[in-house]
Design a protein that fits this description.
Number of domains: 1
Structural class: mainly alpha
Number of helices: 8
Helix content: 55-70%
Shape: globular
Strand content: under 5%
Largest sheet: none
Number of strands: 0
Length: 254
């Protein structure tokens, strides 16, 4: 019996647009929730049920929180990014491409980032690096020091790979990485300094941390778009098969 074949058409621009729109929605919901949390005198709620759902809304859409909907979204898009990189790495391996190992390393980095987002591993390094100097409050979050070191090491490891890319992909790889790092490291340094001076219970700090996360989301979204366009431009078709779908080898005649 012939097996049914089904093709899924992927439109990079549409996917990027959906992800960017979702990110903007979470930014708006988070800012709304933080406003309601910090300015309770601007409204009145006497019903315990309404108060419960309000607290639930604030917690589950706080982009600076953990184990909530924005955290799931961030983990999901990083998993998508890792999956795309693994697909390209697999294709490069079949081609015996010179940079197949760099593509595999990139996929593994994205996969670790998704695990870290869900498990919040990087923030645990604050304890390990607690005795490091705090320069003008910029390293209030000590894990940033380790993060900068890791970025520099990865930049050196991927330098040769980056230089061989065509100009279009160079631009998109650089922009998506720069946008992501602006949120993940740059903005984190300034919000840490702000926290050290003004604390966290104010709307300015909440807005800063919200826009930090949005930079990460837009950087990841642009990288997803970049990898989808890369697949579109360099491969006419990529298919997935189970081992049972492969043709059986013909036995040689005796």
């Amino acid at each position: 019996m012939d097996k049914f074949q089904h093709a899924v058409t992927i439109r990079p621009s549409r996917i990027a647009g959906i992800l960017a729109g979702t990110a903007l929605s979470f930014v708006a919901l988070s800012l709304t929730g933080q406003y309601l949390r910090l300015f309770p005198n601007s409204y009145q709620i006497s019903d315990p049920t309404a108060e419960f759902f309000l607290d639930l809304f604030i917690q589950k859409f706080d982009v600076n929180g953990e184990v909530n909907i924005p955290t799931y979204f961030n983990t999901l898009i990083l998993v998508i990014l890792a999956g795309l990189a693994f697909v390209i790495a697999s294709a490069k391996r079949s081609q015996k491409d010179r940079y197949r190992n760099e593509w595999l390393l990139m996929a593994m980095v994205f996969l670790f980032m998704s695990i870290d987002e869900a498990a919040v591993i990087h923030e645990k390094f604050n304890v390990l690096l607690k005795n490091m100097p705090n320069v003008d409050g910029l390293f209030t979050y000590k894990w940033v020091i380790g993060g900068i070191f890791v970025v520099l090491v990865l930049a050196l490891m991927f330098l040769r790979f980056f230089l061989q890319l065509d100009n279009r992909n160079k631009t998109f790889f650089f922009l998506s990485s720069a946008i992501y790092l602006t949120g993940a490291l740059g903005s984190e340094m300034f919000s840490g300094r702000y926290q050290a001076i003004h604390g966290t219970k104010n709307f300015t700090y909440s807005a800063m941390t919200t826009f930090e996360e949005s930079f990460e989301w837009f950087g990841i979204t642009l990288m997803i778009f970049t990898l989808l366009k890369y697949i579109e431009n360099y491969y006419s078709e990529i298919s997935f098969r189970s081992t049972g779908a492969l043709p059986k080898p013909v036995k040689p005649e005796k």
